[in-house]
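Box 3.1 A note on notation
Throughout this textbook, protein chains are presented in two layers. The first layer is the amino acid sequence; the second is a token string describing backbone geometry. Keep the layers aligned when reading.
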Amino acid sequence: MPREHGKDGEFVETVSLENVLDVFDAVDGPVILSADVADTLGCSRETARRKLNDLYDRGDLDRRKVSRRVIYWIPEDPTPDTVGRTQEARDTREADAGEDPTPDRENPVEDGAESDPVEDVRAYLERENVGPKTAHGRDAVIEVVRLLRDRGPMKTGELQAELFDRFGEHYSSERSLWESIRRAFEDVPGIEDAGYGKYGYAGDADTREALGK
């Protein structure tokens, strides 16, 4: 990943929008995901999403939500319907090859281990009618638990970007999505305030204890 020292002495990413557009030549098919940009350019997925959104905002790219992911394409390329079918075919090829088509949703639970605490939290929310009342709102809360468990403490902005990638079709902005779900966090086992604008995962043991398991 191209990086250089910033004014504060820390490394900063210097991925250009032109670098992102070049990714179309590096992947199989007319569409790309933020994961494609991150993998090809060696940058973080947050940076990839930000650059893709910049290209979308200036009209260089169009985008559409397919399943749980947002796909991007150059407007003069295939129509959205064709793009959706292309991405679905790509996922099928990955599945046939034994690859996980959604690598950013890995689950670290080992075979033979206890039940997945994230799914236990989902069952708890549904059983106790806790959190958002809409299915997509509840799914967004569960995704917060999953992200924090998989990646560790995350900043509010990072969570907002991740969630809007997955559930943006239901909300007008990242802020509206966040405001609709964050009030439920104090009632959701597993989510804890990590301070300094961050959220963290309480750990499997504490989460299961809060669930009464």
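The longest strand covers residues 62-66. Residues 1-12, 82-87, 99-113 have pLDDT under 50 and may be disordered.
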